[in-house]
Specification:
single chain, 4-stranded antiparallel beta sheet
Length: about 150
């Protein structure tokens, strides 16, 4: 199923210039991408930063040009007090409770008092507007797509 979906994206890129998948686990793609037949189309795996575990596959027609990361990714920043604790599971659970499917969200990078959520750019505003609480903590999520 994944191979046929990726093949379809590749064929559409021949006609339209560029097509991009939703987020997929890199391990999920590795074997499948080798089976895709591309003529005049190159593919790139990009998760928004080097070493991403969840990536999008961009098929680009050589005659079309390039895409920008801003076209492919929204970056949301979540910040909390140092004495509080939020984990990856808390953030992902909050997103899932909003009805956001896993294929909409890339990596969630959690630090000591902040986290970054990489998502489809068209979903960034929806997430920012609807997340009011993560775990036991309330507070805003900010769209950092311009960074």
């Amino acid at each position: 199923m994944l191979i046929s979906h990726l093949q379809d994206l590749s064929e559409r890129a021949e006609k339209t210039g560029c097509t991009v998948s939703a987020f997929l686990a890199l391990a999920e793609i590795t074997d499948s991408i080798k089976s895709i037949k591309t003529s005049g189309v190159r593919y790139e795996l990009d998760g928004g930063y080097e070493g991403a575990e969840r990536v999008r596959v961009a098929f680009v027609n050589a005659d079309w040009g390039e895409y920008t990361r801003a076209d492919l990714f929204g970056v949301l920043k979540i910040h909390w007090r140092e004495q509080d604790t939020i984990g990856h599971r808390d953030i992902l659970g909050t997103l899932m409770s909003l009805g956001v499917e896993r294929k909409i969200v890339g990596d969630i990078i959690v630090g000591e008092s902040e986290a970054f959520v990489i998502c489809l750019p068209e979903m960034a505003d929806y997430i920012v507007d609807n997340v009011t609480k993560i775990g036991k903590l309330s507070g805003p999520v900010r769209d950092d797509s311009e960074r």
